[in-house]
Design goal:
The structure holds two protein chains of two kinds. Chain A is mainly alpha-helical. Among the domains of chain A are: about 10-60; about 95-195; about 220-245 and about 250-260, no CATH class. Chain A is about 60% helix and about 0% strand. Chain A has nine helices and no strands. Chain B is of the alpha/beta class. Chain B has a single domain (about 10-110), classed as Response regulator (Rossmann fold). Chain B has helices at about 15-30, 40-50, 65-75, 90-100, 115-125, and strands spanning about 10, 35, 55, 85, 105-110. Chain B has a five-stranded parallel sheet, sandwiched between helices. Chain B is globular and about 30 Å long. Classes of the chains: A mainly alpha, B alpha/beta.
Amino acid sequence: MTKLLRLSEDEYSVIEDALAANARGRAFLRMRDQRARAIAAEEVKRLMRSLVASVKGTAPEKYSPTHIHILRQELQEMSVYIQQTRAEIAALRPDDSGNNRIMAATGELDAIVTATERATSDILNAAERIAALTQRLPKTDEIAPIREELEAQATEILTACSFQDITGQRTTKVVNTLRYLEKRVNSMIEIWGIDSLKTVSEDVDTRPDAHLLNGPSLEGVSQDDVDALLAELNGLASPDKPEDQRGDAAPPVLATTKTSPSMAAPTAVSPPPGQAPTRMAPLNGAAANGAAINQNDIDALFE
Amino acid sequence: MANLNSSVLVVDDYGTMRRIIRNLLAQIGFNNVDEAADGATALGKLRERPFGLVISDWNMEPMTGLQLLQEVRADNKLKSMPFIMVTAESKTENVVAAKQAGVSNYIIKPFNADTLKKKIESVLGPL
């Protein structure tokens, strides 16, 4: 079979330039281009017809109308779930940062730690005072048992106060987890771009005392402020005051006392990597699985 | 026989806990008690003057109780220091890690006066 001659780019350009040099040559080139376009268009149409035929011919066989209906339903449900998820995430971070629930929960937990710390300190003061007073009791046979019992009970109170350390550490872990969740939620909000999304509607407590059911306020007023307010209100309502000094007076403005300084947050510490138990007494049950163990198990390790 | 005149260093970042342990030690008979709120401060005190016992918490920053223990055991002058860990970290791996680091004994919070006394006796001898 004879090999077809192929032109180089330069040769093609020389011939094309030669044809373009006169009117008949240029007419030839235009006709050639038109025919090439027509062939290309016909090729596209042929492919389209083939594609349509393929879809028409095979889809009904593979997917029945029932299947397509189910698929559509599933897609609609997925769309609804996605919308709901976006709304739920948006609800976690309302526009007003003062209403941020995760931040609020963190603040409440900090306040618990602070309050228990203060209470524990007061209890310790009392226990130490009892122990000191016990030392002043006479060492007579009659008093000795009472003295011993008082000392023992004071010691019990002291050791029971260690609960504050444990609750503090556990609360700190919860606070750290909440902060982690907050970071993740904020990341999701940024990824989804749902800052402006309408949040989900909430169940509103319509009871008349609903505003009192959230526990003590973190930014409330102090007892001194309340006393001052009551004294002032009593003064305003006092019958011996002239009529024009009662009633419409604006309530006094109170200075709020803020609480909840953040406590230092010790982080959970893991043992050094790569350290395996060696030459230890065997542990059984939960202890062997890395769970918490009791003092008796630990004692066995040190025997 | 334990020497009640020897100094005890109590290391805990919770002031309340230091106070409780100090009180319990006073009841046992130890009146020479010093405190540190973190591992680094404790290490400084240990290198400053002699102590007969360290009672340390685990969860502290910036230096943990375990790191303090490792520093103590790595120090030629301190390596034989009796060291009791008092902590809420009661997972097996924590106890094992402390044991491997050379802890003398290990007490889980919450504990009572009797437990503290027994552990001190197991480390220092009868009180």
